[in-house]
């Protein structure tokens, strides 16, 4: 296999695609496939967004291939695991015809490149996918990294909210602040799979009830509260957490109870006082990454 610019050895891609791919020999249900790609490669299950990408992925592995799209057959609504809506669908027949719809259905690509709906619990082969030029900034520091974005996360212990802020700050990090659907979709999945506990979000309405403010940076307007929240139950819920009772969507919650702390930092800012990288990692990515994420996360004033 010829090396592809921007892809690690053993991975493949093409000039027109913005991702790298690797066919794996594992055979798993949807959940297992997602964990496999993340654990092994900080990657996701390949999910085609164009016809070109669809046929490219199809040729990487013989037999049926499970792809990283889930949805609801009754509604014919499909979503990528990065939280984005699916625009391309190439079903071999109308998914409405299937009668085994559950809350979550999965999609398998057949040898003719066409898709069929299946239960997510059916084991299938799959392909892992990651961004072109992906660099693992985070795991050398003991952090984990968003597969699509240059954000590093670090899990700490269980703290009151104020102590959570202090604990992250003491490490030169921010508290978790998912400000886009893409960040939220990943974090919700990660919490369910790897943390299995309620996790603070750096968002509070301490100063003015119902006016939620991020711990720092701009407000994208993104919120992921669960059904019925924020409700300020008991009149003392001014902090926010990923909550098991909300299926790990957000719940406004009292600041004076403990939840697990996850801190975050932009990958290019992990050069802070506590986490010195060696020079080459910084120099490789700093210009592009910092400009992009800077636009998104930092105040302009
Ligand atoms: Ca609440």
Automatic annotation (TrEMBL):
<dbReference type="InterPro" id="IPR016186">
    <property type="entry name" value="C-type_lectin-like/link_sf"/>
</dbReference>
<dbReference type="InterPro" id="IPR001304">
    <property type="entry name" value="C-type_lectin-like"/>
</dbReference>
<dbReference type="Pfam" id="PF00059">
    <property type="entry name" value="Lectin_C"/>
</dbReference>
<feature type="domain" description="C-type lectin">
    <location>
        <begin position="148"/>
        <end position="264"/>
    </location>
</feature>
<keyword id="KW-1015">Disulfide bond</keyword>
<dbReference type="InterPro" id="IPR050801">
    <property type="entry name" value="Ca-Dep_Lectins_ImmuneDev"/>
</dbReference>
<protein>
    <recommendedName>
        <fullName>C-type lectin domain-containing protein</fullName>
    </recommendedName>
</protein>
<dbReference type="InterPro" id="IPR018378">
    <property type="entry name" value="C-type_lectin_CS"/>
</dbReference>
<feature type="domain" description="C-type lectin">
    <location>
        <begin position="20"/>
        <end position="129"/>
    </location>
</feature>
<dbReference type="InterPro" id="IPR016187">
    <property type="entry name" value="CTDL_fold"/>
</dbReference>
């Amino acid at each position: 296999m010829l090396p592809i610019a921007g892809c690690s050895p053993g991975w493949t891609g093409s000039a027109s695609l913005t991702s790298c791919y690797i066919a794996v020999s594992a055979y798993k249900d949807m959940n297992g496939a997602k964990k496999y790609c993340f654990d092994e490669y900080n990657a996701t299950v390949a999910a085609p967004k164009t016809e070109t990408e669809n046929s490219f992925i199809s040729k990487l592995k013989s037999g049926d291939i499970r792809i990283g799209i889930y949805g609801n057959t009754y509604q014919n609504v499909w979503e990528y695991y990065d939280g984005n809506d699916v625009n391309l669908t190439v079903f071999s027949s109308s998914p409405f015809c299937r009668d085994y719809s559950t809350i979550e259905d999965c999609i398998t690509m057949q040898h003719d490149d066409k898709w069929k709906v299946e239960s997510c619990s059916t084991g299938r082969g799959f392909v892992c996918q990651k961004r072109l030029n992906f660099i693992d900034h985070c795991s050398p520091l003991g952090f984990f990294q968003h597969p699509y974005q240059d954000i590093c996360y670090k899990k700490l212990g269980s703290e009151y909210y104020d102590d959570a802020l202090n604990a992250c700050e003491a490490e030169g990090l921010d508290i978790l602040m998912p400000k886009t659907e893409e960040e939220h979709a990943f974090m919700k999945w990660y919490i369910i799979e790897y943390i299995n506990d309620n996790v603070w979000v750096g968002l509070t309405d301490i100063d003015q009830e119902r006016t939620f403010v991020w711990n720092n940076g701009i407000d994208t307007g993104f919120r992921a509260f669960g059904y019925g929240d924020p409700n300020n139950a008991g009149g003392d819920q001014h902090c926010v957490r990923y909550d098991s009772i909300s299926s790990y969507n957000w719940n406004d919650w009292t600041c004076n109870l403990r939840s697990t702390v996850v801190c975050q930092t932009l990958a290019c800012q992990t050069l802070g006082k506590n986490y010195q990288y060696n020079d080459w990692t910084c120099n490789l990515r700093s210009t592009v990454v910092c400009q992009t994420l800077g636009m998104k996360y930092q105040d302009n004033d």
